[in-house]
């Protein structure tokens, strides 16, 4: 999974001295930053429900590894969301936009759709009706991807420049916590429901029903928020235009501006491939742990506890690296670390069932993955420099960054089946090579120097 970037304002150089920790903490407690924090949780919550958590459910239901690997394709909406991003950017939701404003109306609408989609997925049976599971997961992914578009736009328009860095940090941290709730949290819930005497299929159903209820956290946040002033001004400025004109302007302006830059295609390829090594191995991490002989609770406890701590520490470390070093040096550090982290799982495959070894492997993966994510977010921030098209450009870039997770990783299950687990994770290191080649090529072309320093 990749986190969504903050506004282009965060790409501006920072010549002011760093504030003390008291002043910094005060920024995190600003109402607008807190709103973004809860919206980050809401964005992170559904991703695993159609991804890694669903794969555990399927594996426990007896679905083969090849089919499980193909289920990465249900993430297609995350790679295509830029197609309908101009619609979200320019049009209104009937009634809801009138009551709450354009951005908040879309937020409420997408969260209601998410609740319905998760409930439909909860009612499916992976063992006997994988097609209906795929349809339910696809609906969850589509609603989730649309919510990401709206949250991106809301965050960009609602936070002033001096709150952008805090907003980004809060969003990324809450996003990861939302993902952990929908992975380890769901696994604990399923075990708890089974402990009450429910059959395994019913326990999984109620686990997903509980996650559908948790989407209401984002809905309440949207209702408590205020419509961004920039959104109101844009609404007033385009009130006399047709829907077609507004959508066309948003789409053409965003894409033509980005594709007109030097080495645009190489940049887009790099965006696709940077997190591919993480995505390729991550697709099969949960089935690997289950196959190795760990229980669902073992995996959940380590991901929930040790994994969360490693993620948060890695996030701070990534922020330090991005502030301490140049953008290109930071990208090299993040790229190499997240590739080499796969060796921890190759080692775990040879060790076998050992909780300390699992804790170490999960810690390494989460720590390096968080570093790579924060640095990647900083890079995407530097790419989006026109606030008129920020939301649509974000949708394009984050959609492309999901291609590795969705399409390139779809055959990971077959690779694991053919090679065995130790070799699979070594191959996961090797698939980082194309992104490293592109990174070197773009560096020599002066691409990163042209972007300037990035404020994190």
UniProtKB/TrEMBL annotation:
Keywords: Membrane, Transmembrane, Transmembrane helix, Transport. InterPro entries: AmpG_permease/AT-1 (IPR004752), MFS (IPR011701), MFS_dom (IPR020846), MFS_trans_sf (IPR036259). Gene3D superfamilies: MFS general substrate transporter like domains. Residues 32-446 form the Major facilitator superfamily (MFS) profile domain. It is found in: Membrane. It is a multi-pass membrane protein. The chain crosses the membrane at residues 33-57, 63-84, 105-123, 129-151, 172-193, 205-225, 265-290, 302-322, 329-350, 356-382, 394-415, 421-442. GO terms for cellular component: membrane. GO terms for molecular function: transmembrane transporter activity. NCBIfam families: 2A0125. Belongs to the major facilitator superfamily. PANTHER family: MAJOR FACILITATOR SUPERFAMILY DOMAIN-CONTAINING PROTEIN 3, SOLUTE CARRIER FAMILY 33 ACETYL-COA TRANSPORTER -RELATED. This is Major facilitator superfamily MFS_1.
């Amino acid at each position: 999974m990749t986190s969504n970037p903050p506004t282009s304002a965060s790409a501006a150089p920072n010549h002011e001295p760093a504030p003390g920790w008291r002043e910094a903490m005060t920024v995190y407690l600003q109402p607008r930053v807190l709103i973004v924090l809860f919206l980050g949780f809401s964005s992170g919550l559904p991703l695993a429900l159609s991804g890694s958590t669903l794969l555990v459910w399927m594996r426990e239901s007896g679905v083969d590894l090849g089919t499980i690997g193909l289920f990465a394709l249900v993430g297609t909406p995350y790679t295509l969301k830029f197609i309908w991003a101009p619609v979200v950017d320019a049009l209104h939701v009937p009634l809801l936009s009138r009551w709450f404003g354009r951005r908040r109306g879309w937020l409420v609408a997408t969260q209601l759709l998410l609740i319905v989609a998760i409930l439909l997925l909860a009612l499916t049976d992976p063992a006997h009706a994988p097609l209906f599971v795929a349809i339910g997961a696809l609906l969850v992914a589509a609603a989730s991807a649309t919510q990401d578009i709206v949250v991106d736009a809301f965050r960009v328009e609602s936070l002033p420049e001096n709150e952008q860095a805090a907003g980004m940090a809060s969003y990324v941290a809450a996003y990861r916590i939302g993902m952990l709730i929908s992975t380890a949290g769901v696994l604990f819930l399923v075990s708890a429901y089974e402990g009450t005497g429910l059959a395994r299929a019913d326990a999984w159903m109620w686990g997903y029903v509980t996650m559908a209820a948790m989407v209401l956290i984002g809905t309440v946040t949207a209702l408590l928020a205020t419509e961004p002033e920039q959104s109101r001004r844009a609404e007033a400025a385009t009130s006399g235009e047709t829907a077609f004109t507004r959508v066309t302007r948003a789409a053409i302006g965003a894409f033509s501006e980005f594709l007109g830059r030097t080495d645009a295609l190489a940049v887009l390829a790099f965006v696709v491939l940077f997190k591919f090594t993480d995505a390729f191995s991550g697709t099969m991490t949960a089935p690997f742990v289950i196959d190795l002989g760990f229980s669902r609770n073992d995996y959940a406890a380590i991901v929930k506890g040790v994994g969360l701590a490693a993620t948060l520490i890695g996030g701070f470390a990534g922020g330090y690296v991005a502030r301490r070093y140049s953008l290109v040096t930071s990208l090299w550090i993040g790229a190499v670390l997240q590739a080499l982290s796969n060796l921890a799982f190759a080692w775990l495959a040879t060790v076998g069932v050992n909780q300390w070894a699992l804790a170490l492997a999960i810690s390494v993966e989460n720590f390096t993955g968080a570093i790579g994510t924060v640095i990647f977010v900083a890079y995407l921030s530097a790419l989006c420099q026109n606030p008129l098209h920020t939301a649509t450009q974000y949708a394009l870039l984050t959609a492309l960054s999901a291609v590795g997770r969705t399409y390139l990783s779809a055959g990971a299950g077959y690779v694991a089946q053919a090679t065995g687990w130790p070799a699979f994770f070594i191959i996961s290191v090797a698939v980082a090579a194309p992104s490293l080649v592109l990174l070197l090529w773009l560096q020599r072309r002066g691409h990163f120097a042209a972007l300037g320093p990035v404020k994190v």
